[in-house]
Structures are given as C-alpha cells and as structure tokens.
Design a protein that fits this description.
This protein is an alpha/beta fold. 43% of the residues lie in helices and 15% in strands. The longest helix has 27 residues. The protein binds manganese (II) ion. The site of manganese (II) ion has 6 residues, from loops. Pfam families: DHH, DHH_CID, DHHA1.
Length: 473
C-alpha cells in the first residue's frame, strides 16, 4: 500500500515511531466534526498498535491549557489543533518529560518541535487539500504500518477522514480535492466510501423530500425554496410518490432514475427562473456515502454524519460524538440524535425570536442583541438563517450578539448575496472592530465571529459599520 499523502510520509514515519516508543498516549483534539473524527482515527490506530490511549476533547488550546498538559507530562498527540500553539509547545517540549506530537492542518505559529505533521509544512493547503482528520489518517496509516498491523484494513479509517474533511467544509466546487481526494480514494478502494454526482443539498438521507427542496438555502429557486406547498406541487408534477406508508420519502428513497429526473427538472426550473449559472452549478456536487452505515440514517452521508458530530460538540457532549465515531451505534447514537433534534429546535426558536424582535439598522449593517435568548454557540447559524425572515432584510449584513455563559459577549456576523463581489470581508472587519474594544474576532468573508466585553456592543457596532462601509466603497 502506497502512503496516501507521499509529501507527508517522512514526517509521519518519525512521528509514528515516536508514538510507538511510548506505552501510553494522550490524544488531545478539537471539539468539532473534524476534531472528533481526527481523535477517533488516531485513538483507533494507537490502540490497535497496542498502546493505552486517553482522549481529551477541547474547545481550543490556549497557553494555559498547553501548560497544564505539559505539567502532567508524557506523550501527547494533538490532532486538529496544536499548530497554532507551536511556539508554546516548542518552549515546553525541551524542559522535561513532556513529548508533544502534533498532527494538525491549521496555520502553524512560529516555533518548531521535533514531530509536527501539517500539510502547510509540505506546501499543501490545509484549508482545502487536507483536513485535521486526513492528517490524523496519514499518521494512523503510518502507525499501523510501522507496527505491522494490517487487519482490519487500515484504509477503512478513511471513512471518518472523509467525514472530517466534509465537516471542515473543505470541498471545492462540491468535491474533495488534492490529498483529501486521495484519502477518499483509499476509502473507496476498501468499500467504506462511495462517491458519486448528486444533488448538493443537505439532508438527502434523512430529510423528508419536500422539506429537502424547501431548504435549498444556498441556491434560491423561486417557487420551491422556502415554499413547502410549491415544493410539493413540483414533486407531484413529476409523479413522485409522496404519500407512502412510511411517511414522506427521502431523496435516497427514490430510485436512481427518479433522482436523475427530479434533479434535471430542478435545474431546468432554476434556469427558467433566472438563477445565475454559478449558483445553479452549486446545486450539484459529489456526495460521499458510507455504505456500511444503515441507509436513511444520519451516518450514511458524510455531511449528515458531520452535522450530527457538530451537534454533540455544540452542547458540550463531545464524548458522545467521539463514541459514535468509535462505533457506538446504540446509546451514543441515540443521544447524538436527540442532541441534533434539540439543536434544530433551538435554531428554529432562535430564528423565530430574531424575526419577531427585528433588527436595528445602522448605515451598512443591521444588528440585534439576543442576550440569553439564543445560545452563544448557535447564534451565528441562527443569524445566517434569519436573513430574509420577517422584516430582516436579506441583503444587509446581520450582526447578532448573545451573552456567553462564562462572561463576555459573542458576536456573529453573516451576509448573503453578492456583497462579497463588492468587497465585503466580515472576517477582517470583525477582527479590526473587535480590537478597538479590546475583543478578538475573525473568520471568513461572509461569516465571521468575535468576542467582546459586555457593554461594548454599541461602540463595536459603530466601529464595524465604519469598516464595512469602507470595504463596500
Ligand atoms: Mn479542522
């Protein structure tokens, strides 16, 4: 078996040998889909190689957390985090019995440690070519290879790596590319991944069909998006059997022929109604199916699997997501599904709250303070989905505040439409505006977040408004 990512091979061998020289390893990972799959992949490989493994899931890794881990000492494998704290890790690695090994894909800080596995270090783009889970997979394959363990086939771990990459939103034009694609190919080779062209709408395995079409929020198809009755009429016109004994069918329940027919009708409708070509392209992409999982479950499709894992992390029950990744299909899966259901309920309640409360308009943005009414961990998703609801203008950037349970105020900003083409970059704007009030922020062009001190909200809004205005001019 060839190494899945040759460029990382030498570093992976050195890191694997160092880990195998230990008796026990603590795996420390990030609390999102990518981090949970990373931890599961690494822990599975190390255990198969005969090591005792402990896993700790963390929301982030600040200096205090690193110092804590170093004080306890031993061999610590960081997955999907660690590179950002490389400077501190480097200082502590030389001082005692602490041996850090990092397998991460985030931009590395200055500093160097002996065992640092990161796509950025070998000229790969850690934002789209290899996620944390893929990096952990490279290490896991090497650990098993060096330990001479080849049963079950180590490439089966690629299924989780695909879930991690999809969860980390690494797809480019709807599919995994670069080293991520090589990892997916490993999974296909051993039958744990099936990829194919499909509708790129979330929920093909579990959402009732009319609801699936109704929620095509990335691409607005007039008459269908946000219109349950319209979606039903559209499906009925195509002779889709909607009232089955088992209730609404899902996309996966339709046969391949029907799927093709509905998909092309959907594209035709979008073209007829003047949806721009690049948005129409976004309706189709590559789906990654896990054929060993039950059809119609949340685990069958990589993006739905990732969503389930994120739901456990958002409600401080990462250990549940980790157990699902490690194969628990009973108690942990039930609990994860309950968390996801509650998560969805909280999101709808949040959207309703924002739509009822309404926003206050500044010159270039609209804002709303949710206080304790919306959890800080979901206020960003809620804000994005509330655009266009009630009187909330969908073409103006929205800024939503929510109080954090441990003090401070969480800020989330979202924007829609073509503001990106006009120069809007919320990530930069939030970083700069947060800095003016002693907070911290950053993120992407159309979705960003910050944490600011309580009471600084209005000052922050005017600083942000000024920056967004400057960007748009
Ligand atoms: Mn990640």
């Amino acid at each position: 078996m060839d190494p899945p990512v040759p460029a990382l091979h030498d570093r992976a061998v050195a890191a694997a040998d160092r880990l195998l020289a230990a008796e026990s390893v603590r795996v420390v990972s990030h609390d999102d889909a990518d981090g949970l799959t990373s931890a599961a992949i690494a822990a599975t490989a190390l255990e198969r190689a005969g090591l005792a493994v402990d896993v700790e899931i963390k929301h982030g890794l600040d200096e205090a957390a690193i110092d804590d881990l170093a004080t306890t000492g031993g061999t610590v494998l960081f997955t999907d985090l660690g590179s950002g704290g490389l400077d501190r890790l480097a200082e502590l690695a030389d001082t005692g019995s602490f041996t850090p090994v990092v397998a991460d894909h985030h931009e590395p800080a200055d500093g160097s440690i002996e065992h640092h596995l990161n796509p950025h270090c070998v000229g790969l783009d850690g934002g789209r070519e290899l996620a944390g889970a893929g990096t952990a997979y490279v290490l896991a394959r090497t650990v098993l290879d060096r330990a001479g363990v080849d049963e079950p086939d180590p490439r089966e771990l690629a299924a989780l790596a695909v879930v991690g990459a999809v969860g980390d939103r690494q797809t480019v034009d709807g599919e995994l590319v670069g080293a991520n694609a090589a990892v997916a190919a490993d999974g296909e080779a051993v039958g744990v991944i099936e990829s194919g062209t499909d509708l790129a709408i979330y929920g093909t395995q579990t959402r009732p069909l009319p609801k699936l079409l109704e929620y095509t929020t990335d691409v607005r198809i007039p008459g269908i998006t946000g219109n349950r009755q319209g979606a039903i009429r559209f499906l009925e016109a195509l002779d889709v059997e909607l009232r089955t004994e088992a209730g609404w069918p899902t996309w996966a329940d339709l046969g391949p022929e029907k799927r093709t027919q509905v998909a092309s009708a959907l594209l035709t409708r979008a073209i007829e109604r003047g949806v721009p070509a690049e948005r129409i392209d976004a309706l189709v992409g590559t789906s990654y199916i896990l054929p060993r999982e039950e059809p119609g479950t949340q685990l069958r499709d990589a993006s739905e699997f990732a969503t389930l894992l994120n739901a456990t992390a958002r409600y401080e029950e990462s250990e549940i997501g980790l157990a699902v990744c490690r194969g628990d299909r009973d108690g942990a899966l039930d609990r994860a599904e309950t968390l996801l259901k509650n998560h969805r309920r909280n999101i709808s309640a949040g959207i309703e709250y924002l739509a009822e409360t309404g926003t206050t308009e500044a010159e270039h943005l609209q804002w709303v303070h949710a206080g304790e009414q919306i959890r800080a961990t979901i206020v960003g998703i809620v804000a994005g989905m509330a655009l266009g609801e009630g009187d909330i203008d969908r073409h103006t950037p929205i800024v939503a505040f929510a109080n954090k349970p441990d003090g401070g105020v969480k800020v989330s900003a979202r924007a829609n439409g073509r503001l990106g083409d006009r120069g809007l970059n919320l990530g930069t704007a939030l970083r700069e505006a947060a800095a003016t009030v002693g907070g911290e922020g950053g993120g992407h062009a159309m979705a960003a977040g910050a944490t600011i001190p309580e009471g600084a909200e209005e000052t922050f809004v005017s600083a942000l408004d000024g920056r967004i205005g400057a960007q748009l001019n």
